[in-house]
Design a protein that fits this description.
The complex is a heterodimer of chains A (137) and B (396).
Chain A (H helix, E strand, L loop, with lengths): L14 H7 L5 E5 L5 E2 L14 E5 L3 E10 L13 E8 L4 E6 L5 H4 L5 E8 L6 E7 L1
Antiparallel strand pairs in A: 1-2, 1-3, 4-5, 4-7, 5-6, 7-8
Chain B lengths: L6 E8 L10 H16 L8 E3 L9 H8 L5 E3 L7 H14 L5 E8 L21 H4 L8 H16 L3 H15 L3 H9 L10 H6 L2 E4 L1 E2 L9 E9 H4 L7 E6 L2 E4 L11 H12 L8 E4 L4 H10 L8 H6 L12 E2 L4 H4 L7 H13 L11 E10 L3 E11 L1
Parallel strand pairs in B: 2-3, 2-4, 10-11, 10-12
Antiparallel strand pairs in B: 1-7, 1-8, 4-7, 5-6, 8-13, 9-13, 12-13
Classes of the chains: A mainly beta (137), B alpha/beta (396).
Bound molecules: zinc ion.
The site of zinc ion has 8 residues of chain A, from loops.
């Protein structure tokens, strides 16, 4: 089976995020100089421009903000897996991540906006990054 | 600009074919520029400003100027996806009003269909330099259409909007397409199943592409292009057709944000700016050319530009007002739109072209006595990052 598209490097903004996934850690940044939660990862604060921020561990619990079910993808990694849900999940720590909601029989009917979900890792190989996915909590 | 008649669209051309093997995007741009200048009654040598999306050349505004053979004193390469042309028209109008140039040409050309460019279903390509955006999206199989599907799903959840209501947008657009011979030829050449008027039921029964978006809510992938000539009021005295005045414009961007409302587009910011600039209100608008990449895009433009209250777009579009021969609201996408006439990837220029035809009285679905039109583009990905620019046009 063809691999999913992988994050590519050098790309210093998201490198720490992806390195942490090798240890099954979902991390995010908070600004040291204002209350902003920074996501996707960046070296600067998107609210105040501060260059000072701290990485934190997420508990991996959140809510489905919205989703779409892809019936047709031409990408070789996805074209044979059947309908799959692409979603935005709002983590309890205040950041919104693009992801897949998995481990449901019928994505169109079994996933609901507002549904509670929890982190489920999809391994991409020994010693490699893992993809953060979500499943019903 | 507020209602002052300083700058006008004086020439237009829409490349007539949607399947155009054997020609390049650059050739489509040059042919369109030539015919738009002829439409204006101006010459190649009159052009002193070049506006371009910078996508067909290696060195952006430099090599496109060389290719055309223009010697511009003003170059602007604004590239914000499908609404680049509204941004550019806004810039051209502002700079011409300031006396920095007299005759601006905006062009677009694409061979997306013939090159088999998958606009909505390909997902990540894994090409180009690594970026944080791609690194945080591509692994999950995000497709272009799914990004819009996520916005539609949230709209339905948040406001109770129904599939049948969204379908009204497709129905009205096809109604107009069937009156436009170029749109009929487009649908025929692109082998649409059923080149005919459609019903709400046809739309909701059509194949699901990315839930909750059905096939008949999605734009076509065509070849095509066009050109717009914009000129100062002094130049207008010598042009061939009635000028169509640019009286207002606005620009904004919006991104996915933590806790943000995905159902509100950048149009909520740029819409009020454009209307204030023009000194008119949405209720005065006769024709709305709103970028229809998907039904949801139009729904957000209608709401965010203030044609109805936020969240009430479903009821608004169901009241039968979108067709050119109905009153009570603006006629929508009277050329047949990206859904049923022309979408080679960046449709924004066609919104300006048809708005101009309406203000001239040249549309195939002509609104009686049309005086004001809005051309609003939406570029990028509605659910991730996008730009929205409305420009407001007035008949002479
Ligand atoms: Zn900050």
């Amino acid at each position: 089976m063809t691999m999913r598209p992988q994050p590519r490097f050098p790309e210093p903004d998201t490198q720490p995020f992806w390195d942490a996934t090798k240890e099954k850690k979902l991390i995010y940044q908070t600004c040291d100089d204002c209350p902003e939660v920074i996501f996707y990862p960046r070296a600067h604060c998107t609210k105040c421009g501060s260059l000072n921020n701290t990485w934190n561990d997420s508990k991996g619990l959140g809510t489905v903000y919205t989703f779409s079910v892809v019936m047709q993808s031409r990408h070789p990694a996805f074209k044979d897996i059947g309908p799959y849900a692409v979603a935005y999940v709002d983590l309890d720590e205040g950041f919104r991540i693009m992801t897949n909601v998995i481990n449901v029989d019928d994505p169109v009917n079994d996933i609901k906006i507002g549904m509670r979900v929890k982190l489920a890792w999809l391994d991409q190989g020994e010693g490699e990054i893992a993809l953060p996915m979500f499943e019903p909590a | 600009m507020s209602q002052t008649r300083e700058v006008a669209v004086v020439g237009i051309h829409e490349y007539p074919l949607r399947v155009a093997p054997g020609v390049s995007a650059l050739q489509i741009k040059a042919e369109s520029a030539s015919k738009a200048l002829a439409d204006a009654g101006l010459s190649w040598q009159d052009v002193d400003a070049v506006y371009d999306n910078g996508q067909n050349q290696n060195i952006g505004g430099l090599s496109i100027s060389e290719y055309f053979g223009f010697k511009p004193r003003l170059i602007d390469v604004t590239s914000v996806g499908g609404t680049s042309y509204e941004f550019q028209a806004h810039h051209a109008a502002t700079m011409i009003a300031a006396g920095k140039a007299n005759v601006a040409v905006l062009t677009y050309g694409s061979t997306a269909h013939s090159n088999r460019v998958a606009i909505g279903t390909a997902g990540a390509t894994g090409q180009g330099a690594p970026t944080p955006f791609n690194n945080m999206e591509d692994s999950w199989g995000m497709t272009g259409i799914a990004g819009y599907g996520m916005v539609k799903a949230r709209h339905m959840h948040q406001y109770g909007t129904t599939n049948e209501q969204f379908a009204e947008i497709s129905v009205a657009t096809r109604y107009h397409a069937m009156r436009n011979p170029e749109a009929v030829k487009a649908m025929t050449d692109l082998e649409f199943v059923g080149v005919n008027e459609i019903t709400v039921q046809d739309v909701v029964d059509s194949r699901m592409i990315a839930w909750p978006l059905h096939l008949l809510e999605c734009c076509m992938v065509s070849d095509g292009g066009g050109a717009v000539v914009i000129a100062s009021k002094d130049v207008v005295k010598n042009t061939k057709k009635k000028p169509v005045w640019i009286i207002g414009g606005g620009e904004a961007t919006k991104y996915r944000e933590n806790g943000g409302d995905i159902t509100v587009s950048a149009g909520a910011q740029s819409g009020p700016v454009a209307f204030a600039d023009a000194g008119v209100t949405p209720s005065e608008i006769d024709v709305l050319m709103a970028y229809d990449s998907f039904s949801i895009t139009v729904m957000l433009m209608i709401e965010d530009l203030g044609f109805c209250k936020k969240g009430e777009g479903g009821d608004y579009v169901s009241s039968g007002i979108l067709k050119f021969d109905q009153s009570g609201g603006p006629a929508l996408n009277t050329d047949g739109g990206g859904l049923s006439s022309n979408h080679p990837g960046e449709r924004g220029i066609f919104c300006i072209l048809e708005a101009t035809r309406q203000m001239r009285g040249e549309s195939t679905s002509q609104v009686d006595n049309a005086k004001l039109a809005v051309a609003v583009g939406n570029g990028g990905q509605l659910g991730a990052r996008h730009a929205t620019s409305p420009i407001i046009l007035a008949a002479d």
